[in-house]
Amino acid sequence: MKRILILNGAGNKRGNTARLIESFRSGLDESHEVCEIYLQDLNIRGCVDCQGCGRKAPGTVNPCIHRDDMHIVYEEFTRSDVIVFASPVYWWTISGTLKTAVDRLYALVRNSGNAANVKQSVLLMVAGGNDFRQPLMWYQGFEYLMGWENLGVALNNMNEAVRIAKSIRSVRP
Ligand SMILES: Cc1cc2nc3c(=O)[nH]c(=O)nc-3n(C[C@H](O)[C@H](O)[C@H](O)COP(=O)(O)O)c2cc1C
After folding, report:
1. How far apart are CA 173 and CA 21, in angstroms?
2. Residue 16 near ligand 1, beta carbon < 6 Å
3. Does ligand 1 lie within 6 Å of residue 42's CB atom?
């Protein structure tokens, strides 16, 4: 069993991102536990680079100075094995909603170090066009820095989302 966290950064709850996520979920083995967070429903402020997270005791439940809904993401993120980033392309990159939450993960990474080090991840994206170069660059950079394992990328492609989901094994090979 893997715990899978889907961070849904779409502006539209029932749009193309939701459909791509649905395809992904349809391919998952029932043994996995899935938590999907629709980020637009949460009140999440932007990171202000105050470095307050570095001054908190390691392992603090809410490592950030902001007091907002990000604690919900921190809690789920810490418990999860696989992080799925789902977003439409907005101005050639991921949505601001998803980016704001990802920026705030900095506090958790800074505060807990290797709690964030053991993840696998997936990128699910939709777009009106077909230019995903910038979000791919972001994703690859993030994966590289975090040392995470990329399980796959599905871009405007429901079949690929299903395939990635089916490939998720309970135990790492
Ligand atoms: C603010 C905004 C910016 C967008 N920028 C792009 C873009 O740069 N490239 C592109 O191909 N589509 C762009 N789109 C189109 C969306 O990616 C597309 O409509 C997508 O299917 C929306 O996903 P959703 O149905 O989950 O909301 C943009 C849409 C919005 C609202």
Report:
1. 25
2. yes
3. no
pLDDT at 166: 97
CB 171 within 8 A of CB 2: no
16-26 and 158-167 helices, crossing angle to 10° = 40
Position 117 scores a pLDDT of 67
Q: Quick check: CB of 96 below 6 Å from ligand 1?
A: no
Distances (CA, A) of 118 to 19, 56, 82, 114, 165: 28, 22, 9, 7, 19
- Burial-class residue 173 by CB neighbours within 10 Å (0-12, 13-18, 19+): exposed
Q: Which atom of ligand 1 is nearest to the CA of 127?
A: 17
d(CA 135, ligand 1 centre) in Å: 13
- Name the residue at shortest CA distance from atom 22 of ligand 1: 88
Amino acid at 109: V
Domain ranges of the chain: 3-167
Task: Say if domain 3-167 classifies as CATH 3.40.50.360.
Answer: yes
Q: What is the pLDDT of residues 34-57, one digit of tens each?
A: 999 999 999 999 999 999 998 988
Q: Tell me the pLDDT tens digit for each residue of 149-158.
A: 999 999 999 9
* d(C-alpha 110, C-alpha 52), whole Å: 10
